[in-house]
Amino acid sequence: MSAIEACRTEALGGHVAACTKCGHSHIGYNSCKNRHCPKCQGPAARDWMAARAEDLLPVEYFHVVFTLPAEIAQIAFWNKKAVYGLLFRASAETVMTIAADPKRLGARIGMTSVLHTWGSALTHHPHIHMIVPGGGLSPGGTRWVACKPGFFLHVRVLSRLFRRLFLDGLLALHRAGDLAFYGELERLAQANAFAAWLAPFRKVEWVVYAKPPFGGPKAVLAYLGQYTHRVAISNHRLVSADAETVSFRWKDYRVKSGNRQKVMRLATHEFIRRFLMHVLPDGFHRIRHYGLLAGATRKAAIARIRDLLGQRQPEPEARETTEPALHTLREPCPCCGAPMRIVEIFRRGQKPLSRAPPREQAA
């Protein structure tokens, strides 16, 4: 919260930028770069997408979502690092196992998984968004195995394997003493009580669904930018805020028809409590790659797939190495569109010598 409060204020220092043509100048304050800050995620998403653009393949891409039952989500809230990690592993293993089955796809696949922990009303709702290319390499790596047009894998088959893998993993965490319980569920610290409590979840359907394929690689990239660096609530959803209440737009998915958009008003302290529920443990990665897209083998796997698909390797982008570029802002002058150059840098606690007005920032 301290990082978000200080973001793009004089507390973090900044720079003075001047237009190279019309003389316009303004002060830009430094960003906190905290991954939970709504103001910092736009630039971070653009940089991440630019790095991922060279990995895109000329195939269909699918969006698969894995969701936990609400009761188990409560266990996840108390044990974020352990259970969120299990959610990543179980969902990835599910898709790779079913895809490798000769009766299904019979291929080694890759995927990018993104963890979201919130619902539209800022409630705790952990789920995985998975972006998967529609196919994979044959076991020997000699050919590309494409899925059926418009269809990836049966979601019911995915759901049942995911349910088993996750529940088995949760029991393993319990046996290892990696789970904590509080309040009415404190009794679940006992092995027998926990096993009995989990038993009904093996018989109900878990929510796994696949959305229609994207309309090409560019659509995938745009979609990834919306999901990879999203935080619990973005600036554009805020309607009003004061010392007593915060109002924001949310989607009511229970409404089957008509306008789902509504405005929710929460006491300020309750809004802050809901926002902080979604702060991840230190060092926890919310974006992970698996299979063909994981680790050091990713570049070689992508190159092999491109060869099999007859696609030319993308040319590396030329990078500007001249000294002036290091002092030129990405955004042009708001008055005339010419480049903006940094003419002064000031550190934390310092004030700029120039008297340029502060640049307007999003709230």
UniProtKB/TrEMBL annotation:
Q: Which residues form the Transposase IS801/IS1294 domain?
A: 110-298
Q: Which GO terms describe its biological process?
A: DNA transposition
Q: Where is the Transposase zinc-binding domain?
A: 1-68
Q: Which Pfam families match?
A: Y2_Tnp, Zn_Tnp_IS91
Q: Which domain of life is it from?
A: Bacteria
Which GO terms fall under molecular function for this chain's record? Answer: DNA binding; transposase activity
The UniProt entry, under NCBIfam families, shows: transpos_IS91 (NF033538)
Entry protein name: Transposase
What is the species of this protein? Roseivivax halodurans JCM 10272
